[in-house]
Amino acid sequence: MNSKMVNARLYPEILFHFTKTQQDLFNILKDTFVVSYAREKIVGPKKSKEFGAPMVSFCDLRLSELKTHINSYGSYGIGLSKEWANRSNLNPVFYMSQSCSVTDDLLSNIEQLFQHWENISDPATQSNVADIYSNLQNIWRYVKNYEGDLSRGGTFTPNHRFAEEREWRYVPLLKSNIFPFVPISRIATPDQKASLNAQISDMRLHFEPDDIKYLVVKQDDERLPLIEHLYQAKSRFDGSTIQRLSSRILTSKQIEDDF
User: Fold this and answer.
1) Contact 255, 67 (CB under 8 A)
2) How far apart are CA 117 and CA 127, in angstroms?
3) Is residue 137 within 8 Å of 171, Cβ to Cβ?
4) Torsion sign, CA atoms 81, 86, 88, 94
5) How confident is residue 236, by pLDDT bands cut at 50, 70 and 90?
6) How crowded is the C-beta side of 86, counted as CA atoms within 13 Å?
7) What is the pTM of this model?
8) Cβ–Cβ under 8 Å, residues 132 and 147
9) Is 144 exposed, middle or buried (0-12, 13-18, 19+ CB in 10 A)?
10) Around Cβ 180, how many Cβ atoms within 10 Å?
């Protein structure tokens, strides 16, 4: 058997993050990732849970698989190493079926534990149960339905298969001085979301220039402005790094046509 086939892996060693505009990509390169609140809805056969949680999301897709993802999330991207992801406390999300009772079981356990915690009178026991409750809640920040209805940018897609995105997430530790969860009523409008994000605008997910494996722009004539931006951000990118990254710039059209 061909040794390349034996050593081939299903998943790449790079995670990609895509965004809508060139300026968004420039901001990431200059200031690293800004953590922001996202709306999430988890649905089971009988129960559902909606909330907002701070995060930065990535996809675990090969270059040949990125076409649909780019169409949904934007034509400007950055690819970083899995070694960086593991070092930075990222984790793949847990995909759960809307039709499986285990999704309802997890929701029920959270509700029942909270009710139990409220009825405990002993402070030490209540504190211990509160920690368990927080840890169990924390799991929900990494949960997503395998497929479900998708509303994004004013468009609605029924039965979108979220699992095809193979998402990884960074979520701040529960001990961070921010709200790890907010009720969906507090993040229902763009203004509410902007207000929450303003409260955590200084929270970053950092990376070093050596962690970058690819950069993606929409079209060919945007390569040079990207290289010029790297030179302007010279405190983060030295000459040899810029030379390396200049050869690792792809365009969305190139990914669509050649991979």
Assistant:
1) yes
2) 9
3) no
4) positive
5) confident
6) 5
7) 0.89
8) no
9) buried
10) 18
